[in-house]
Write a structure and sequence with these properties.
binds ligand ANZ, binds zinc ion, 34 strands, 26 helices, alpha+beta, four-stranded parallel beta sheet
């Protein structure tokens, strides 16, 4: 038989797959097959595919290929998330256009995907940087704008002085830019936002549909990100100011324990109420705070800072005067940007009170030591004290009662608050979707009419893209200066581009009708394919991408374009590929190159190693796995498939029963294991089947036994999920045609699934006298009767034994 040569198989089958096109999804409405939509998070073209891609695409492909084998009409598309900063930075370095780098990398990745043998429908390929894709980002922006879901507002934003662009909060890590490490500053800028907060409730409530289908970890991350809390809005008076000030609190029951009041230093209120004597100190403090990110400000181990504003607030329930401070731990854009501070029961307030010698008053008796002395706030349950009408009540009752009192006095009401902020959309960078707005002195913000879309990017390259503090698009004067679409007067285009998360919020809809020209997608086609049955990708997208996509789908649903409200029925988050216990990195020198692994061991061995390494959600330490062992296994499997000596179509029923049972049990188990996404165990079963078939060829009924053919054909189909090249080659050598991808999933014969027998040892006076093949479920009484009926046993006995010890199903010990 021929040797296993991975490179030769790859060349041969890649060519054949191009001809056979076995993974094309059918758009025939009359196609009776059930539809399934499998989606991999599309790649960013940063270079060639890396080990992480190797894992996620191999995993998703197990599911896709299983569905093909089960006879579903499978949609498994691929495209590229091809706008973004790295392309632009590369273009500046090389004095080139970002498109050159981007599309060259896309070609590299496409070639690698083809070699990697992923079952994509290549006809649906899309790139988000193509004008006929980003045109629809602009069209969608216009729809959001019409509905009041896209708006501009001024405010403090995170600004990276190095990349010269705005960053989202989550792109600021320890006060530094996630990308370049520069210290982030806060800047006052007018920016575009999507009003995702309008959908906060639905984003939370609809998670009921995802329960049990998304991991608990993922659901918890989404829930915390949305961060719904319940409490009350309470009105305080500030002495010398007419308008009352509202604070949001989750603990209105502690209102009698408020000993001071804190305003965010960057909130307009602070500036407005600060006493003249304190103004200078306040302004200096505000300037310091402007350098910090929200994450720094909220950090619990950061030393508390603040300044007294020289004014007092009045507690609405007891008329008490409390000092007003500005402190950075209160954020300007959360709640109302001001709080009542209850140091006894809130740790941040207590830390602040101790630093600035402010009073601490316990109003909930918890049985724990006095926070003023220990420095440990007591936020837990207890009984109200020092709280007038609330005294003696438990927390929940006190909250109800105080809200009633506040309502009656017109001093407050129950309130709900969300942590979720509106989605900051504007980026001052080039390589993204131009925001389709024209600014006119007379008409204001005028959307570019739909029939003039796309607003294409101007042709800028190299130096023209270098960061200047304003978007590079502003430098393209011919492009910027236009006529107002409304009044025809002179006007200017918006020069910012959209956050690239816009591109990935709806690409999965575009795949259903790529190239569609009358809208972002063909509503009918999405009705047929959607929602996505299974999404596969990294946990790093647990909040932003998955939340934004859910938001887009809800808006599109409200526009009448979708009949579902959640895009992804199931999500699988694969682990990372690490090396020697650490994430791969240049500085650690522990990087592993996917292409080099493939060159050394072949595609199938690399893919099989990825799948066999462990449960899909767990990290794979490449130092602990052996692609060489995978390669040996594949060679063994191919040899088994090559050595079958019976003819195709032979009836299996006459075959060796023992091997047939192994085959059918393997089918049964692998089916269940794949359905429950325990792919690594499924591979272990395939290995066992290979071993059993090998044994049958060598020391059993031999290669011509029909059961050997049955085992080998089964092996080819099962293996096609993880090792498509070996599976195709084996299938062909077995005489199958045309592609194993369409062979069809085997079915286990229930008659062959009965558990095998167990060998029971029968001892007489401590010596083994017989071995019995018995059912594993045999009872002690049945086994005793069987043992006593044995001729070999009877030959040793001369009368009724003194004792019989039975341990079903393995042992009978007879004491004569
Ligand atoms: C008084 C109080 C007493 C509070 C107590 C807590 C415990 P969540 O659950 O995250 O919504 N808060 C309100 N606005 C804030 C802002 N802009 N910046 C920082 N903190 C703010 O948190 C709500 C609680 O966070 C509110 O309840 C308020 O402190 C604080 F024993 O009010 B609490
Ligand atoms: Zn105008």
């Amino acid at each position: 038989t021929e040797q296993y040569d991975p490179k030769a198989l790859q060349a041969k089958w890649q060519r054949r797959w191009e001809e056979l096109d076995p993974y094309r999804a059918s758009e025939d409405p009359a196609d009776p097959r059930e539809r399934r939509y499998l989606l991999d998070m599309f790649p960013y073209p940063s270079g060639d595919l890396h080990m992480g891609h190797g894992e996620v695409f191999a995993l998703a492909d197990v599911i896709a290929r299983y569905w093909f084998q089960r006879g579903y009409n499978v949609l498994h598309p691929i495209g590229w998330d091809s706008f973004g900063l790295p392309a632009e930075n590369a273009a500046i370095r090389r004095n080139a256009h970002p498109a050159e780098w981007t599309y060259a990398n896309i070609e590299t990745q496409a070639t690698s995907f083809k070699r990697y043998g992923i079952s994509f429908d290549w006809t649906r390929r899309l790139h988000t940087s193509d004008p006929d894709y980003y045109r629809w980002n602009q069209w969608l922006f216009n729809r959001f704008f019409e509905r009041g879901l896209a708006y501009r507002k001024g405010g403090l934003v995170n600004w990276c002085p190095q990349d010269q662009t705005v960053l989202a909060n989550e792109q600021v890590v320890n006060g530094r830019c996630e990308r370049c490490g520069a210290e982030v500053v806060r800047r006052e800028l007018t920016q575009w936002y999507f009003k995702i907060t309008d959908y906060a409730d639905r984003l939370l409530d609809d998670m009921a549909q995802l329960e049990g289908l998304w991991s608990d970890r993922l659901l918890t991350m989404q829930r915390n990100w949305i961060g719904r809390s319940e409490g009350a809005d309470v009105l305080f008076t500030i002495e010398g100011r007419e308008e009352p000030v509202t604070v949001y609190t989750t603990r209105p029951d502690t209102l009698f324990g408020a000993t001071f009041f804190v305003v965010a230093p960057d909130a307009p209120l602070a500036e407005e109420i600060v006493a003249p004597a304190q103004r200078e100190a306040f302004e200096a403090y505000r300037a310091e705070v402007a350098k910090l990110s929200d994450i720094d400000r909220l950090s619990t181990d950061k030393e508390k800072t603040g300044v007294f504003l020289g004014v007092h607030a009045v507690n609405p329930v007891n008329g008490e005067r409390i000092p007003v401070w500005a402190a950075d731990y209160v954020l300007s854009d959360y709640g109302h940007g001001a709080i009542m501070a209850v140091p006894a029961h809130d740790q941040r307030d207590l830390d602040f009170a101790r630093k600035f010698a402010l009073p601490v008053r316990v109003v909930v008796h918890t049985g724990l030591a006095d926070p003023g002395e220990t420095g440990e706030a007591t936020p837990g349950e207890g009984t109200l004290v020092n709280s007038g009408p609330l005294d003696g009540l438990a927390k929940a009752d006190a909250i109800k009662k105080i809200i009633g009192i506040l309502n009656d006095n017109g001093r407050g009401k129950a309130a709900v608050n969300f942590r979720l902020r509106d989605w900051l959309l504007s980026r001052q960078r080039f390589w993204g979707t131009p925001i389709p707005i024209i600014h006119c002195a007379d008409c204001g913000e005028v959307p570019v009419p739909d029939d003039q879309l796309p607003v294409r990017l101007p042709d800028l390259r190299g130096e023209a893209l270098a960061p200047k503090g304003v978007s590079p698009l502003a430098g393209a004067t011919d492009w910027v200066n236009v006529e107002c679409p409304k009044c025809g007067g002179p006007a200017r285009r918006d020069t910012d581009t959209m956050d690239t998360f816009v591109d990935s919020s709806w690409y999965f809809l575009r795949y259903c009708s790529p190239g569609y020209e009358d809208g972002p997608f063909d509503v009918e086609k999405v009705r047929r394919w959607g929602p996505i049955d299974q999404y596969v990708g990294g946990i790093e997208h647990a909040v932003l991408h998955l939340l934004y996509a859910r938001f887009f789908v809800k808006v599109l649903h409200d526009m009448g374009m979708l009949d579902f409200t959640e895009p992804f029925i199931r999500v699988l988050n694969q682990g990372q590929v690490i090396n020697r216990g650490k994430a791969m990195s240049k500085s650690l020198g522990n990087g592993v190159d996917l292409g080099a692994q493939i060159d050394d061991f072949g595609v199938d061995a690399v893919r099989l190693t990825m799948i066999f390494a462990g449960p899909p959600e767990e990290d794979i330490d490449w130092a602990d796995v052996s692609p060489a062992a995978s390669q040996k296994f594949l060679a063994r499997a191919l040899r088994v498939m090559s050595e079958v000596a019976s003819e195709p179509g032979v009836s299996f029923t006459a075959g060796d029963l023992e091997l047939r049972k192994v085959t059918h049990r393997t089918v049964d188990e692998v089916t269940k294991l794949v359905e429950s996404q325990r792919f690594n165990v499924a591979v272990a079963r395939m290995m066992e089947l290979t071993t059993a078939a090998r044994r049958a060829i060598d020391t059993g009924p031999g290669p011509a036994d029909p059961a050997v053919r049955e085992a080998a054909e089964t092996l080819a189909v099962l293996l096609s999920l993880v090792a498509p090249y070996v599976a195709e080659e084996g299938w062909e050598r077995l005489g199958g045609s045309p592609s194993v991808a369409k062979a069809g999933w085997p079915e286990a014969d229930p008659a062959l699934l009965v558990q095998e027998s167990v060998t029971c040892v029968v001892q007489v006076a401590g010596k083994v006298r017989d071995r019995l093949e018995v059912s594993p479920d045999i009872t002690d009484a049945e086994l005793e009767a069987l043992a006593m009926g044995s001729e070999k046993v009877q030959a040793q006995l001369s009368g009724t034994p003194r004792r019989i010890i039975v341990r079903a199903p393995k042992l009978v010990n007879i004491v004569p």
